[in-house]
Amino acid sequence: MAKEPRVVAELGRPETPGETAARKAASSAAYRSSKTVRNLVVALLVTLAIVAVIILGVPRGEVPTTEIDVAETAQRIESGGDTGLIVPELPDTWRVNSAVVESDDAVRAWTIIYVPESGQGYLRVEQGFDADDAWASRVLRGAETEDTVTIDGIAWDRYDVSGAGETGNITQGFATQAGPDTILIYGDTDDASLVVAAESVADQIRQLQEES
Predict the structure, then answer these.
(1) Own/partner pairs for 108-113, CB < 8 Å, 24+ apart?
(2) pLDDT digits 0-9 by tens, 1-56
């Protein structure tokens, strides 16, 4: 005896073959859709877990800093041909940010950049090789000599940077001759730090003056 078709409650009658096929197709589509979403969630969780492992696995600690040895750098540069480089004898509490030979259109200069002991601002000590008379003023944005000060027996021209228009972050500067070179000390710092820097190169300046 043939089995009677199942009556579908929503229809109140048996399904037609077309309705059965449509119902099965809709069920299959819903299953595939739920499986895709589930796979995406699982993949996202796995990715987040890998990222977390990488982040936690990176070593922590301070970034190592390389200290610049001014004397050693000067010696290396002198071996390349530039001789008689000054080496400021400043306390270890002064941090050295840079020690290089720089060049503008006319003058090459041995340049050392410090952060003074106070930790405020910066200070540059430059030795302009065979610098012309106007070099210091050009570096100091057109500043003019205000007066002369003597520090540890060395006479320095003091530049009034405040009246020199666009001075950037330069407060004042000292300049003096050391043989054929010009020594320039300037920056954005206090007067005491400038004096300490000038004192630190006094003996070397005297030696260069005597040699010339």
Answers:
(1) 108/82, 109/184, 110/74, 110/77, 110/82, 110/85, 110/86, 112/70, 112/88
(2) 555 566 555 555 666 777 667 777 777 666 666 666 677 777 778 787 777 767 66
If residue 210 lies in a helix (H) or strand (E), which one and from where to where? helix 202-211
Q: Which residues pair with 109 in a beta bridge?
A: 102, 128
Are the CB atoms for 86 and 205 separated by under 8 Å? yes
Judge contact between 143 and 153, C-beta under 8 A.
no
Strand partners, 127: 110, 183
**Nearest CA among 80, 128, 81, 77 for reference residue 105:** 128
What distance in Å separates the CA atoms of residue 51 and residue 49, rounded to the nearest whole number? 5
Tokens of 166: 């666009």
In CATH terms, the superfamily for domain 70-211 is MucB/RseB, C-terminal domain (3.30.200.100)
Q: How far apart are CA 15 and CA 48, in angstroms?
A: 47
Kindly report the pTM of this predicted structure. 0.68
Q: Where are the alpha helices (DSSP H) in 8-162?
A: 17-57, 70-78, 135-139
Domain boundaries, the chain: 7-57, 70-211
Token duo for residue 7:
């009556």
